[in-house]
Amino acid sequence: MKEIKLIEILKGLNQGEQKRLSEFIRSPFFNKNPVVTALHDYIMKSINSSDPADLDKTSVWNSIFPGQKFNDQKLRTHFSNLKKLCENFIAISSGENNLIHNNILQLEFYGQRNLTKNFNTVLNELNDHFENEFNRNFDFYANYLSFERSVLSQKGKNIEKDIDWIYFGMSDNIDRYFISAKLELINSLLSRKYHVLGSIAPKIKFIDEVVSFIEENTSTFEKKDPLIFSEYLVLKMMTSENGDRYFNKLLSYVFKNINKYNHTELELVYFSLINYGFNKIAMGEKIYLKKIFNVYSTFESNGFYLHKQKRKKNILSIHYNRYNNYLKYVGILLKARTKDVNEKAILMSELKKNINVIGRDWLLEKAKEIK
Predict the structure, then answer these.
(1) Based on the structure, what is the number of domains in the chain?
(2) pLDDT tens digits along 36-59
(3) Which of 11, 141, 188, 315 is deepest in the core (most CB within 10 A)?
(4) Integer distance in angstroms from the first to the last C-alpha of the chain?
(5) pLDDT in tens, 296-337
(6) Parent domain of 26
(7) Cα–Cα distance, 148 to 126 (Å, whole number)
(8) Is residue 25 domain-shared with residue 82, that is, in the same domain?
(9) Which of 247, 273, 302 finishes a domain?
């Protein structure tokens, strides 16, 4: 049987997710059809078998409806019902990780039902979150706007009440949502072209206006919107002729706040710094050997690479192994400044044996230049 969308979904689940899906399908709240449960079990058994049986329609039908005449439409219906359950499982599982969004949905429910005490409890919890969160990306502002809309809907029931402050706050957050989304978009585009420094002029609307607005309110963004400020520095680093200045500012700002970034946001600035630094090294600027060494060692000392244990096959794991080696080799290069001929010979010999990053010939040549 041709691999249908349902089979693709089921094959994409890890062992933990497969177990939870099985429990989900057996819950009478979500599924009261035993045929769908049996269909799920047969497919999963086949997928996980060391010698998987062919998932042809006849085999599936005979397993679920032994002795009955094959009915293609009936089988298709059960496939469709199982696929819908899988989609509901994915939606619910994904939502479990977005507690803020779930709390906003609770807030909307309590507001619609006029459950004032519960509304105010969740309101205070969410308000505390939005006031104190460091990682204010466009997802943060999307949630913030949904939160403010819920508050506006509830508070606005009293037509005599002055709630102008809610409208002003929403207007401000709409601006920041736009700025954050725009910066992340343009920096994502530029990250694919980071080998061209200071000479990229992407034709995306309102980028100049966004940059001008941030520069007119630099201190405010630096204090209250650290992610927007970081993205701004990344953009200037990649597009300005004086990119070194913005590299140093970004490096200083990230090091100062490194324990406040969540891992996802820290990855964005990390790879921006690393890519820029490698580009500079490739252009022969030896000072960036030490700067990149500083990035690696600082991030490592703050546990940045520990996430590789949870996501063994992701790009961070690959970069960790590559950069962990690079730390060693840059250390060798820096030590190669020694004037002791014998010691330098030993270091160069070790370098020749082990180096496997950024280009053997080029880096060895640079090592020889260090005095």
Answers:
(1) 4
(2) 999 999 999 988 886 666 678 888
(3) 141
(4) 67
(5) 888 888 888 776 444 444 544 545 555 555 555 555 455 545
(6) 5-96
(7) 10
(8) yes
(9) 302
Residues 203 and 276 in one domain: yes
- Final residue of a domain: which of 302, 334, 359? 302
Helices 226-239, 243-257: inter-axial angle, 10-degree rounding: 150
Helix 34-48 to helix 57-64 angle (10° resolution) is 130
Tell me, yes or no, whether 88 and 52 share the same domain: yes
Q: Is 186 inside a domain boundary?
A: no
Q: Which sign does the torsion angle of CA 109, 114, 119, 123 carry?
A: positive
Return the exposure string of 287-314: e unless at least 16 CB atoms fall within 10 Å of the residue's CB, then b.
Answer: ebbebbbbbbeebeeeebbebbeeeeee
pLDDT band at 350 (very low <50, low <70, confident <90, very high): low
Segment 131-141, tens digit of pLDDT: 999 999 999 99
Question: Is 191 a domain residue?
Answer: no
Q: Is 317 domain-assigned?
A: yes
